[in-house]
Write a structure and sequence with these properties.
Elements (H helix, E strand, L loop, with lengths): L2 H32 L11 H35 L5 H33 L5 H6 L3 H27 L12
Helix pairs in contact: 1-2, 2-3, 2-5, 3-5
C-alpha cells in the first residue's frame, strides 16, 4: 500500500466534504437573504425548492472542478518542497475558491439575464415566489446547461494557475 497516496486520498475526501458544506451553506444563506427572505425549504413552495436544488447542483458541479486543483497544490507542496508551506496551500486554495465563486455568480447572473431576455414580462424571482414550478424548472435547466458548458473552462483556468515545477526543454 502506498501510504503517501492513501494519506493524500483521505485528505482530498476530507477537504472536499468541508469545502462543499461550507460553500453550499454560504451560497444558500446569501440566496436566502438577498432574494427570498420569507421563503424556506420547509414551506409549501415547490418552485423555490426546485430553484434552490438547481443552484446547489450548479455550485457542486463547479466545486467538482476546483477541489482536484487544491489537491494538486497539496501534492506539489508535499513532494516538491522540503517543508510544507501552508501559506502557499491556503493562498492558492483561496484563489481557486474565489474564481469558482465568481464563476458561479457570473453564471447565475447570465442565466437570469438570458431568461429575462427570452421571456419578457416574466419576473422569474416573483414567479418562483408565487410557486410557479414551470418557470423554476426552465430557470434551473438553463442554469445547469450553462454550468455544464462552462465548467471545463473553469477547470482549465484554475489548472493553469497551478505552480508546477519548471521542466527543462531538451528539444
Amino acid at each position: 500500500m502506498n501510504k503517501q497516496l492513501f494519506t493524500l486520498a483521505l485528505f482530498e475526501i476530507i477537504i472536499s466534504i468541508v469545502i462543499s458544506v461550507v460553500i453550499i451553506y454560504l451560497s444558500y444563506s446569501i440566496l436566502h437573504k438577498l432574494f427570498f427572505k420569507k421563503m424556506d425549504l420547509k414551506g409549501s413552495n415547490t418552485a423555490f425548492s426546485v430553484f434552490t436544488g438547481g443552484i446547489v447542483l450548479s455550485i457542486g458541479l463547479i466545486l467538482s472542478e476546483i477541489v482536484p486543483s487544491i489537491t494538486n497544490i497539496v501534492r506539489l507542496s508535499t513532494t516538491q518542497m522540503e517543508t510544507v508551506d501552508f501559506s502557499i496551500i491556503i493562498l492558492y486554495s483561496g484563489l481557486y475558491l474565489l474564481i469558482g465563486f465568481l464563476a458561479a455568480f457570473i453564471i447565475n447572473a447570465a442565466v437570469f439575464l438570458l431568461f429575462s431576455l427570452l421571456t419578457r414580462g416574466i419576473d422569474e424571482f416573483q414567479a418562483i415566489k408565487d410557486n410557479n414550478i414551470p418557470v423554476a424548472i426552465v430557470v434551473v435547466a438553463t442554469l445547469l446547461s450553462i454550468t455544464l458548458i462552462v465548467k471545463e473552462s473553469i477547470a482549465l483556468l484554475i489548472s493553469s494557475l497551478i505552480p508546477y515545477p519548471e521542466v527543462a526543454n531538451f528539444l
